[in-house]
Give the backbone structure.
Amino acid sequence: MHEFLGASFGALFATALVTWQIGSVIPIFLATITLVAIARYYLVRFSMPGILWLTGAGLGSVMTSLWGTLFILEAGLPPLLMVLAFAALGLTLFAFLANLIASVAREAVLTHERWRLPVAIPSSDPAAAHLKVSLHLACYAEPPEIVIETMNRLAAQDYDNFEVLVCDNNTKDEALWRPLEAHCARLNAKLGKECFRFFHVDPLPGAKAGALNFLLEQTASDAQIIGVIDADYYSRNDFLSRLLPFFADPKLGYIQTPHDYRDYEGNDYLSACYWEYMPVNKVDYPGVSEYGGAFTIGTMCLMREDALVKAGGWAEWCLTEDSEVSVRLRKVGYEGLYFGETFGRGLIPETFDDYKKQRFRWTAGPVQQLRRHWRLFLPAPFAAPLPGWTKLLEVVRCLAPLQTLAALVVSVGGMLAMVVGLAIGAMEPVKVPSIAGLLMLIGAATWWVRLVHRYRLSGCYDTGAMVWGEIARASLSYVVLVAGIAGLSNRPLAWRRTPKFAGLADESPFAATRPETIAGCASLAVAVLCLFATGLLGTGVALLSFIGFVSLALRFFCAPLMAATAIRASRPAPRPSRPRYIPRDARVAVSRVWES
């Protein structure tokens, strides 16, 4: 209750201090606290900060819509421009409300105090040992020592009833896959039974999904659970024993645990990438799971074998075959769980170019999913129901890059339309109210407080690391936009894996970031033009436009900054856990050592 009173009277005091008026805002204040009280009564799962955020965002959208409507009506626009302006306002409001509802799920970790689904994982349960697990490890041209250590971690599971199927697909160089074959035999001898089976298949189409489909066909007939492990992920020994008990629920089709990473400490570039990854994995995904939209993310996941077969296996047409399969698992009647506890850690791409390729795949894949499965997400009675908020959450997630692109196009288009209208005398210069600056400051402060809270929930307490995490996120702005468009194409997109050999970064930070650099320079040039057009646009609009385009330019310029950081970080001697790619002759010698 003290949070509610503090926020309410603090807002009232701040309003009175800025406007020097109190009587005119009392009705709005009373209406707001009444709405908050009603929300507190009905939204029993929300914390008070969560209710204040939700009601504040909802009222803000209403006020923004009213202000936007009045602005368009009073701007004196020509009929065609007025129709386009109202259409843009309506689409913007619809997208905002859809994202607001979806953010209730994505940010449940920040805003909820009661949970419907389990959030903690109990200790190991020996009773779960009756479930036979088949762990699938697909690899292509990977460093043998990394994959071997991944296999060692799987062999050390404190659970007995499992097999590990290793598929090396399409690797031409025997020096890379022969050591894996030999190590499977050594592990079987050590365990006293055949737990590991190795397959080298060439040719095998379908990239990782093709390899996983091949392994699904080789799975032991008595296996009930399928596990997927990436070639570089070192799993904890309680991965199986802690998670398998949840499959006592016959409706549960899959369990996913976070992407997490190792060997980033002491490297500025890898640390920035790490903290860019973690808030999504530790904050967003558990909340999405709470509202029925949990999806698999390619490694450290378990799923029912019969459910996977019933769903049709892995999609070889999709760049994100991992998250795509969860849509079909829910379609055939199963539910999923996502837990925020880490059970395995992998490697982060060593070069910025590889980091961008990874994000391209992660962004274009969901757009492909929406293009293929959009009929599943139609409301009833046009489509069968799916668990929880699956339909809304999937649509919002898959459309996210396209929404960003649309917002950019609408903003630039709106500004150009305003310039044309002012130039031909079709409208008067817009006077920005003086309170706009204060609102921007309040918005920036709110964003920062919320951001810090997200990072702390992810395990980050260093302000510098938070800043670098946001720089890494901003550096991907261009590739996210491009990937969103590419995902709409009917043509197959190349599946580019994340290399596990230590990469040699480009000599120049602009070599891999030429498009971002050009886009940043263009945005900066437009920002300067806005200042020169102050007489035409009006001081307020010109200044706001300048700030907006400078912000966009800075986002694009974060890409060469990250590339430069990667180059600087790659110059010291490579860490032993990430071998560099060596010539074939030298690898043959290495393979002979492994075989001996």
